[in-house]
Amino acid sequence: MGDSVMINVIWLLLMASGIIYAGMNGRIEVVTASAISAAKSAVELAINLIGIMCLWLGIMKIAELSGLIKVISFVLQPIVGLLFPSVPKNHPAMGAIIMTISANMLGLGNAVTPLGIKAMQQLQTLNPKKCTATPAMCTLLALCTTGFTLVPATIIALRSAAGSVNPTEIVGPTLIVSLVATIFVLIIDRLCRAVFRR
């Protein structure tokens, strides 16, 4: 069974069990009211997010055209080289990895996914065993999962769209938590490499 089919089955079971439970308690109208309310809230949130996401994407485009992304990439290159020693310096995979990490640092969750996929495709070209992930692939996956973030743009946008009084107050905690998580996952990554290399 494919992943998407499994997810659909899980969602169907959750909805069916909720409807059955509400029916058994004689409160089926709550299900209808909740469904209508949730649909309305989802549309309102999506409309509110359009403007905020356009703003952040515009800022990212300005950063790209002004050369800020290249500066970030230049600063990250020595660090990324240490984290991915098996990837040649001038290989396209290195550029894709740097762009993925840069997007993660700027909190652009939606932009990270296609960049991460591109980086994995490039790393696969260096993989001698196509059915097994390389250490570089595992490291990239770990970094994308923890997502060290300087500016959590997507979360700020969501908080703002949801009516938060101070949507940027999470910048400090997000920075600290994502930094600690990234350091921890890199330590675990290196320990696993040492253990499974034997």
TrEMBL record:
<feature type="transmembrane region" description="Helical">
    <location>
        <begin position="5"/>
        <end position="24"/>
    </location>
</feature>
<dbReference type="InterPro" id="IPR011642">
    <property type="entry name" value="Gate_dom"/>
</dbReference>
<feature type="transmembrane region" description="Helical">
    <location>
        <begin position="30"/>
        <end position="56"/>
    </location>
</feature>
<keyword id="KW-0472">Membrane</keyword>
<feature type="transmembrane region" description="Helical">
    <location>
        <begin position="138"/>
        <end position="158"/>
    </location>
</feature>
<feature type="transmembrane region" description="Helical">
    <location>
        <begin position="170"/>
        <end position="188"/>
    </location>
</feature>
<feature type="transmembrane region" description="Helical">
    <location>
        <begin position="93"/>
        <end position="117"/>
    </location>
</feature>
<protein>
    <submittedName>
        <fullName>Spore maturation protein A</fullName>
    </submittedName>
</protein>
<dbReference type="Pfam" id="PF07670">
    <property type="entry name" value="Gate"/>
</dbReference>
<keyword id="KW-1133">Transmembrane helix</keyword>
<feature type="transmembrane region" description="Helical">
    <location>
        <begin position="68"/>
        <end position="87"/>
    </location>
</feature>
<feature type="domain" description="Nucleoside transporter/FeoB GTPase Gate">
    <location>
        <begin position="47"/>
        <end position="155"/>
    </location>
</feature>
<keyword id="KW-0812">Transmembrane</keyword>
